[in-house]
Structure formats: C-alpha cells, structure tokens
Specification:
Chain A contains 15 helices and 16 strands. Chain A has 423 residues and is α/β, with parallel strands linked by helices. Chains A, B: It is found in: Cytoplasm.
Chain lengths: 423, 423
C-alpha cells in the first residue's frame, strides 16, 4: 500500500470524477435498451471470465490470510462458481426491472395554459464505498447503471484483485452496448487517502453510499461533505400490544429475532404491553428462550427463568446476534416513548388487532419503516418489490428506507406552452 | 451588535434547535385543522398588530438609513399597511392549500401478503436565512408550518425589530391553535456568528433554505454542513429554433427578458438558430432593442445596429437587468452544448414547432425546469400551482425546481401484514 498524499488522492479522484461526469451525460440520454444490453453483456462476461475472477480472488485470499483476517471476513471475500453465477444472476435481475429514468412522476395542466410534467432523471455520479465483498462491485454497479448514473466504486483493500477482474467484465458489457467505459470506474488503489478524497469530492460526486459495518458507515457519515444514503444501525423494535393476536405475535416475534440475526432488519428489542403480559404471561419470552435466544429482561420479565437481567446499555443496542432486550411497557404510548429514545429510525413493528392503536403507532413514530403484524425482517428492497437494493437509508433527505434504482433518481420539470407568456 | 463567541453562538443555536426538535415532534402529529387554525390566527394577529409592526419597522428604517443602505434595500425593508395586508393574505393562501403531510404517495400489495404505503412526513426542522425583507418572516414560517416542520428564522440584521413584531403575531396564532410556540423561532441577535452556527448545526437542523442574493446563497452553499435547498444564479436561456413559430417566438422572447428583469427566471441569454435567422432576420433582437434592452451580441448578430459587441464574460452571466447576451448557433445541438457550458441549471426554454427537436432539448438538458414555447418567467411555485414557494432549488437532492410545502416533506413506509413472517 503506497502512500498517496492528500493532493495526489484529490487529483486521482478529480480525474475519475471528471470522467464519470462526462459518462453521466451520455448515460442520462442512453435508451433503456442500451442499458439493458450493457447489464446482460456484463452478466455474460462475468460467466465467461469465471477463471480470471477466481484466479484474482486467490491472490486476494492469500493477501487477506497473511493479513490475518477473521474466518468470517475471509468467507465474505471468497468467490466460487456459485457466487460468480449469483453475481451474473443479480445483473440479469436488475436488467429485467423497469427503467426508472424518464418515468412521468406527475403531470398536470395549469389555468395559464401550461402543461407540466415531473420526469425522473439520473442523479449523476454515485460513489460507493464498501468492504471486502467482491459481489458488491457487480451489485452496486448494476443499480447505478440501471438508474442512468455513473459510479465510482471503492471496495475493501483485500478485495482489489477480485474487484478489478469483476470490473473488467462490467466494462466489457458497457463496451458491447456502446456506453462509455467510465460509466463504471473502480478506484485503482488500496490507499485509504482515496476514500477521504471521495468523501470531500463535492461537485464531482452527487451522493455517497457506504455499504458495510458501523465502523465504515460512521466514518462516512462523519467525514463526508457529499450527501450520504445510509443507516448507521438497525435497532429495530417489536411491540406486542394488549390487543395483539397471540398466535400472530408469537410467529412474528420469533421470526423478527431469529430468522437471520446479522441483518439490519433483525429485531433487537421486544416491548410487551402489561395488558398482553397479564393475559398471556411469559409466552413470547419463552419462545425466544426455547429458540436459544439470550433474553436480557428488565423488571418483572427478569423473573422469568432463563432470562438475564438487562443492563441499561442493552436498550438502544444493535446486537446482530441471538440476543434481545425485553421490557414491559404501559401501552402504546410508553412503547412510542421508548422507541423515540432508543430507536435508530430504521424499522419498528406493532402487533395489534386494534386499528386505532396501530394508527397511533404509525402516526407518532417516524422511522423509515413502520410495520403492523409483520416481521421486521421484511425491511428489504427485494421484499418491498423494488428489485435489488443498494442499502437502507434512515436519513430524511431524498432517499429513505430501501434504496433501489428508483431512489437513485432525481427529477426535472418539463413545461409545454403554446407561446405562453406571464402577465 | 455585541460579539458572540463561536461557543456562545453554538450554544444559542443548540438551545433553539433543541426546542425546535421538540416542537417538530408535536407538529408532525398535529392535525391539518390545527395547522390551518394557527395560520389563520397568525394572519388575524398580523392585521391586529399593524401599528406595533409599523412602529418596529420605523426603528429598523432609522437604523438602516444611518447604516447607509441603498434606496432599493430601504424599499425592501419598508413596511406599510398594504404590505402588512399582503403578508396576512399570504398566510391565508397557505392555510387554504391542501395539507401535504399524510398524503399517500404510493401504495401496493406484495405476494408476501404485505400492503405497503409510502406516506408523506415532515422533514423536521428547517433553517431559513434571509436578507432584510421582513415579509419573508411570515412567508417562510407559513410554508414550514403547513408542511409540519419547525422553523428557525434568521433575517437580515436591519430588519430585526420588524421581524420580531411579525414573529410575535405568528406565535399568537400558534398559541391560539394549541401548537408549541417553538414551532416558529427567530434568532434573537444580529450577530453574524449565529449564522455560522446555524450552518454547522448538523443533527439539529435538517435543511437550510437561504433566501436572497448571490452573496448570501454562495456563503450558505460554501459553509453549510447541513443540506441546502437553493439556487445560486438563474442564468436562463431561450433558444429560438429554426422550426419556431415567429409570432410565438417574438412574444416569448420579449416576455422572458422584459416582464421583470430582477427575478431568477428572467432570460439572460438568447440563442438563435442560424436557420431561424436566415428566414426571419433580426426581428427578435430588434424587438428587444425596441423595448430598451441592451443586446450584447456575438458574431453576425453584432452587425445589427443598436447592439453592443458581446464580451466572452457576457455568456454565463446573470444580469438581472435590461441586458441580454445573444448568439447564433447551428441548431439544437449547439444550443444544448452552449447551455451545458454556461447555464446554471435553473430554467431554459426552446421555441420550436418540431416535437422531435423539443424532445431532444428536453432529454439532453438537465436543468431543474425545461420549457417549450413558454416564457422562462413562469419558473415560479405559484405559476406551477404549488401555492407559495420558499425558493427555487437547482440541486438534484430531494427538492428541485420551485420549493413549496410539498417539497418540504419526506416520507416513511407503512407496512401492514396479518402475522406475516419472512421465510
């Protein structure tokens, strides 16, 4: 890893950024067919270059093993035939989505004789900063291209060879479709100064999407001078209301915590209405215990055998593991107050048969996703019907919730008159 | 003007921001009726406190005259009965608009059994920084309140007394409607350090809207660590294509330049297709000259008697005056290239009867507003049917074009299942 000075890094990103801007102009005008062809061509090229990608991945794995990466990080870095096929399938799935650019988002006529349309346009240039998961190279590029945006990719340093090999295949697709090669660029260095330069590249990069753990996302959110689509943590709550249906509640709580514990939509805190507890007892907690979950319980709940007493820090914590915090509350208002204080604005679910109580929960909370009688594990672009997602955003500017190709667009107004002048 | 230290200023803004966040929680849940009542109450209070507002304005006018403000700035600062009535009418007009919060922006069903709604929510806390135009105090507060946002207002230092008197009336409206007084706050100091503190108040303020000239907007865009909705300049182009209708072209060009020259939607550059010029000659330029416009013409156009030869700096310049740059181009492609190079992304209009040429202009340019056979002077939220506007944005994130109450909202997803779990 050679040492780039800040000036070198800024110059490198300025070069990539300028090329990306130029490419973005062409991409904004590219037909849906052409972008589709580039994605299909890239998928074919990934399959055709399987051996080259695997060879590059061996270099990365050796480098990473020498560096002493953990087994789970090595696993994420490793590619095999089936993971390469999955990347190609991902490109084809994005290709098959409707083209988001040029959609008429709204249109209306005005008494002044004007016809006004609001039409979707690409955002411009997207920077994606991710960890050593080579598949993100293909996934992120596909969504950016579909939405007519140029992209600058900066993967984890251990995956550089793999990412370069995948990038070559993506460029083959672009070339075959007659789109500029600079539509998809990879930062060609492991030097971290390049990340800092990306984060301050105002005017060259329109938005940065970080993909990875809290360390990476936190760094990007703190340092970026460019807008960021991200969530720092997914501290998702499930609230079992006094008017919940017992069987639905049992099913949803168990799924929300245990289906997959490592994803941001996994539940980290269970709030139980005292009314529910008085009627049904320990059943929700017992289900979790039976499934092998460590339940960190507060107050009366801590009397349930098998639970662990909760520490104050267990509330507002993202465990990403078979652990959940649990607490009794006095109805939906206390649940709302708890979530406002401890939530991260990602996803919360209420279990209730009462329309009024659900409406209160939906109105008073302002997380990106609020659910009723559904598992927080559904917080996912695919499950929402958006096709692939580049991430989930908890900010309130522009994109919020799952960020798919549609959310990577802006809009412009097209106004038609017949010689109309303003009086 | 006492001297605030940076620490003092940050503490002041933190205090206002914290109160605003608290108020924003209540506002997000406030019914449309309650917000309506607050706006009507504020309008009534403005009329009722006319004398107090006029008295405060006299203090400001004296202070400003001593400071040596220009006559045009003094005029903007001055209030009289009719301007006070106009403010009250503005509040009533915003009150009469549909409530933008809670609108269902999209909804759909998923094969997994989920029903998904995307629903409009307030952004949170808006900071408005403006010059010494006291009416902005009422206008900006009205749009923020309508869209359920708390607002922190920072007007020009010369207008502080007037703004405080108007602010009192707005607070009366809030109080009568039972909404928190901190929904609308005024920065209670002339010290400029408070502006710097507003611009760096990440986490407290969700978006800053600057209203004023290029100096103010440029400062805000450079310094803000918070998102900004703004346009720096309105360098609007009109392109008369070879397929333009002569009479429509004459009408639109004259209106686009001369109706009002001081607004951002006023045309600053006329591009004439050589085909149009060959057929119709100097007519468009002659109309402008006859109306008293200084035409800074390039190439052959400079041979038209009465024109002034254009300097290179005349292209890409916002004159805001009875001046226009003019140039011949070879068809729509050269017009597009010129606008990409010199435009500010605000508003451009093509004059043509050719659908294909108009489509090319609409597709290849990416200004916030593109028009066909219509005057650029229509670039205005009121003309677009949005009611009042807080400004026009040329960025591509979140809001673009006229920023009305709708554009001051974000959204959240409401997901309903019936015990749905993810497999």
């Amino acid at each position: 890893m050679k040492d780039l000075t800040q000036t070198d890094a800024d110059a490198l990103i300025a070069k990539l950024g300028t090329a990306a801007r130029e490419a973005a102009l062409a991409l904004a005008e590219a037909s849906a067919e052409r972008k589709h062809a580039a994605l299909i061509g890239a998928a074919d090229a990934i399959i055709a270059s399987e051996q080259a990608i695997l060879d590059a991945n061996v270099l990365d794995m050796d480098f990473a093993a020498e560096k002493g990466l953990s087994p789970s990080m090595l696993d994420r870095l490793k590619l095999d035939s089936s993971r390469i096929r999955a990347m190609a399938d991902g490109l084809r799935a994005v290709a098959a989505q409707p083209d988001p650019v040029g959609r008429i988002l709204a249109e209306w006529d005005r008494p002044n004789g004007l016809h006004i349309q609001r039409v979707a346009t690409p955002l411009g240039v997207i920077g994606v900063i991710y960890e050593s998961r080579p598949n993100v190279t293909a996934d992120a590029a596909a969504l950016a291209l579909k939405s007519g945006n140029a992209v600058i990719l900066r993967g984890g340093s251990e995956s550089l060879n793999s990412s370069e090999a995948i990038h070559q295949a993506l460029v083959t697709g672009l070339r075959q479709a007659g789109l500029p090669e600079a539509s998809i660029q990879l930062v060609p260095t492991r030097d971290r100064e390049a990340v800092a330069a990306l984060l301050r590249a105002q005017g060259l990069i329109d938005v940065i999407v970080p993909r990875g753990g809290k360390g990476l996302v936190g760094l990007v959110q703190r340092e970026a001078r460019v807008p960021v689509f991200a969530h720092l943590e997914g501290i998702c709550h499930v609230y079992a209301d006094g008017d919940a249906d017992l069987e639905k509640a049992r099913r949803v709580v168990l799924n929300a915590k245990t289906r997959r514990t490592g994803i941001c939509g996994s539940a980290e805190c269970l709030l139980i209405d005292r009314k529910f507890y008085a009627q049904h007892g320990a059943v929700l907690v017992q289900d979790l215990l039976d499934a092998g979950v460590e339940v960190r319980a507060e107050g009366e709940l801590a009397e349930i055998p098998g639970t662990v007493p909760a520490q104050p820090t267990d509330f507002g914590q993202e465990f990403l593991d078979m652990i959940i915090a649990a607490k009794l509350v006095d109805g939906v208002d206390e649940a709302i107050a708890h979530i406002r204080r401890y939530g991260s604005g990602h996803t919360e679910s209420i279990l209730t048969e009462s329309d009024a109580t659900a409406a209160r929960f939906f109105k008073s909370l302002d997380s990106a996703i609020l659910m009723r009688n559904a598992s927080t594990q559904f917080a996912d672009g695919g499950e929402f019907g958006m096709g692939a997602e580049i991430g989930i955003a908890t900010g309130k500017m522009h994109a919020r919730g799952p960020v798919g190709a549609e959310q990577l667009t802006s809009f412009k107004y097209l106004v038609t008159g017949d010689g109309a002048i303003r009086s």
